[in-house]
Design goal:
Radius of gyration: 25 Å
Distance between the termini: 24 Å
Number of helices: 16
Length: 451
């Protein structure tokens, strides 16, 4: 097991950074509450990402008060009664919570109005999330302006650049998620169902202490692998098909996001390997180029060019690569972006660092930002044979002479290939690749063979 950040210590750095950004007001943040599924049964609880960033606390109904002038953090613990103890077991007292979570001051939630009144002198506003600000009521709220916007903007700005403690948790999530992906490679075989592979995959997540997935696992065989967010996971796998697994476990709120595509029968066919090597070449090149100062849009365009050249070599496209990219011929087989931010959310905050990439006046990318040291991003090129796109009359007319539609139609049962790693942008040089799942064709086949 890799070394992990000590307890909850690095969250104190996050709180201090937020207080430095908002020095002129109290800051009040409320944790999420459980959501009832039916009657007295709640959904599995997952804490709000902002509260996790500031505290690391994964339990509901806590409240955090930050006092920038005094540079103090105060934790408020939900009240405890006998019924809760009977049904849920021991709930920490304020002194226990303060000791465990590394916050010096802690009280029961009923003490919040008194603390706000005591600390508000000299402040004209109180910042926080909507749930937190709703707790500030008269008389404590009189004369205080409640503001959610500056709080949200400051926190997203901070969350975009990962601290060493966060990178440690992301590394752990990646390394333990790799165990799940290797289990999926061993589990897949003709005749089994996608959900059986999912069970082996997610068992490893749980065995590594990861209670949640960062997003619903995609286990997509055959033609399902061309459905970008496929989630049914109920098809029976057939010999000669590919299986695309896009899944990541979440540890203390920080998630991995890994995709591997591999043969159900354990060996790539010739046409599978040809297309797989095109996608792998694009991914390897884009990872090497993912450096501070380059924009994610520039990386995406490079992936389009590499994939386009590969498709030309295999007979799917013809013409100049710049024209093929600009006209959307490559996007016919690659209809998504190369990257997104990663952290406490699988599509993590960008901190306002967004620009639109325009092609002939139309925005085509949701994520376009200049990469900075401390960013953690995915690199995930892919190629897909999607019937709705390949048989679209509009696209056939627009891309006539550029796309070999007759050849593409022969691949409509093929599905798709995606390869995805998570990388940390460094101050100089190539990024740190956190993902340790095999992806070279021979290594993938060897992993599939360990059954």
């Amino acid at each position: 097991m890799p070394a992990l950040p000590n307890h909850y210590g690095f969250h104190e750095q996050h709180r201090r950074a937020l207080m430095e950004k908002l020095p002129d007001g109290l800051i009040l943040v409320r944790a999420d509450s459980e959501t009832v599924r039916n009657h007295d049964v709640a959904y599995l609880f997952r804490q709000s990402s902002d509260f996790l960033y500031l505290t690391g606390i994964e339990e509901p109904d806590f409240v955090l008060l930050l006092d920038p002038r005094r540079r103090e953090s105060v934790l408020f613990v939900p009240p405890v009664d006998e019924k809760q103890i009977v049904w849920r077991g021991h709930i920490p007292s304020p002194s226990e919570a303060a000791r465990f979570y590394g916050i010096r001051r802690a009280h029961y939630l009923g003490e919040l109005p008194r603390e706000v009144t005591r600390r508000r002198r000299g402040y004209r506003q109180v910042y926080g999330n909507a749930a937190g600000l709703s707790l500030v009521k008269p008389p404590a709220s009189r004369g205080l302006v409640k503001k959610t916007g500056p709080f949200r903007e400051a926190l997203q700005e901070l969350r975009a650049v990962k601290t060493p403690g966060e990178i440690g948790l992301l590394r752990y999530a990646n390394e333990q998620s790799a165990r799940g992906h290797l289990a999926a490679m061993r589990a897949a075989r003709p005749g089994r169902y996608e959900f059986e592979v999912q069970a082996d995959l997610e068992r490893e997540f749980r065995a590594s202490g990861m209670r949640h997935e960062g997003y619903p696992s995609i286990v997509a065989s055959g033609p399902n692998s061309a459905v970008l967010h496929y989630q049914s996971n109920n098809r029976r796998m057939q010999a000669g098909e590919l299986l695309l697994v896009d899944a990541g476990g979440e540890y203390r709120g920080y998630t991995a996001d890994i995709t591997r595509t591999f043969p159900v029968s354990g060996k790539f066919t010739r046409r599978q390997r040809d297309l797989y090597e095109v996608v792998l070449a694009a991914q390897v090149e884009c990872i090497s180029r993912a450096r501070a100062g380059i924009t994610s849009a520039e990386l995406h365009i490079h992936s389009l060019r590499v994939l386009g050249e590969g498709l030309k070599d295999l007979g799917f496209l013809k013409g100049g690569i710049s024209e093929l990219v600009e006209a959307g011929a490559v996007a016919l087989f690659y209809p998504h972006g190369l990257s997104h931010m990663l952290g406490l959310d699988v599509h993590d905050v960008t901190g306002g660092r967004r620009r639109k990439l325009r092609t002939r006046g139309r925005p085509v990318l949701r994520f376009n930002a200049k990469l900075e040291p401390g960013f953690v991003v995915t690199v995930e090129p892919g190629l897909y044979f999607i019937e709705a796109l390949i048989r679209s009359p509009i696209r056939r007319k627009k891309l006539r002479g550029m796309v070999n539609f007759a050849l593409a139609e022969k691949y409509l049962d093929f599905g798709g290939i995606r390869i995805e790693d998570d990388v940390v942008i460094r101050p100089s040089g190539p990024p740190l690749d956190l993902t340790v799942v095999p992806k070279a064709p021979a290594d993938v086949e060897a992993a599939c063979g360990r059954r």
